[in-house]
Amino acid sequence: VRHEFSYKLLHTTIARRTAARILLQDLCKYFNGYKPSVNEQIKFRLCNHATRLQGGMEIILHAAILSNRYNEENSEVMTKVNRILMDWITSLVSEDAINAIQEPISSNSLKSKVWTLHPWLLARLSLIHQPFFEIYSKVLIRCTRQEQQYMMGNLSIESIHPRLFYQLPSEMLLYSQVNQRWEGLLIHWELLRYQFGNYKEVINHLLQQEWITFKSKYIQCWEQKTMFGQIWNEFFLRLGMNYNEE
């Protein structure tokens, strides 16, 4: 909860939510009169917005979230805008989503601009758009397994690419910030689970499967499992998994 409200109360967040409302008003104007290429025009506008405007991608995600709320008020135009926004955002991350964590992503790419946003935005978008949730959850799972492999010594420092959620300034920092990445992953999972509220069993099921995989693959077979096990026991325990469960 503290991560959500500390983000939502930031001056920049408030300003960008206001900008998102203005953006939605502008996008709705595209539907005044018959325009056969309105979808492409809006997508072009979004691309320019995300590329050229500071905080542009963050504004767009806020707009997508707000448009879903307005969409529930049965506005036909807002329904169309919401669909375009959701499809456009998802299209940025859907390409090669399965291998998204295996290669560094350019910090200037639109995909990177999505993944490096505050995890509350990603969690909220996951709640209201199933295709985005499916991609986001897969990437989170891969990140979690990657950190386990790194701590086990099965993944070299050169092979680790925490570019999606941990934009570190240099490889030197990577050596000393395992705990920072661990905490970052935990925040992503916590916010995702919290956002789903009454539907959090969906997230619990994913975490339960990861907990079972973790126990069978790592805890049962590693000689120096004590410290490693304690770290990841705490990780899953804080996410509601009981480490005494079989």
UniProtKB/TrEMBL annotation:
This protein's name: 12445_t:CDS:1
Q: Which organism is it from?
A: Acaulospora morrowiae
